[in-house]
Amino acid sequence: METIECVTLEVADPAAAESFYTTAFDLGTQLRLRASEAPTTGFRGFTLSLVVSQPADVDAFVDAAVAAGAATLKPASKSLWGYGGVVQAPDGTIWQIASSSKKDTGPATRQFDELVLLLGVEDVKASKQFYVDHGLAVAKSFGSKYVEFATGTGPVKLALYKRRGLAKVAGVSPDGTGSHRLMIGGDAGSFTDPDGFAWEAAAPAPTP
Predict the structure, then answer these.
(1) How far is CA 65 from CA 17, 44, 161, in A?
(2) Is this model's pTM higher than 0.90 or not?
């Protein structure tokens, strides 16, 4: 089964981004950073999600991110599916922090259950087939709206969503041009998908 070992964010100031992510989320080796001045405007077509166990954990991550310099796109609140909020990191990456639970079951922690990469694509069915052809197995599929892949024991989960729908969830305009400022590292090989998202072989994690 193909796995995703890491996602690499391409940022203008890696030192500043490293400081933010260490303070806000402390994700370890599954999130990496590299310098890039590639032009990009507006919505970059993806979000990263931290899935946590309870609302108090959502608040803990959102508060830490905002204190470290993130902008609030959607304040944390209850919804039909649970509890969550959306923030934008100083480097421009959009983060969803969410829990399927609406009630706390214990003290707040800064621990998450899953890191999920959501790609906003123009044609979910076509992109789904593209990834199946590249060795990924489908875990869940809801027609032309949403697809979730079975990425095994890899630390990063992958899902596809309609670009406009994902932008609406994130609370931003779907318009955007230029680089995604994202590289996906895994064992599926090096390629670029129909929406311009690039993959590469995951290098070993840098030693501290």
Answers:
(1) 12, 20, 25
(2) yes
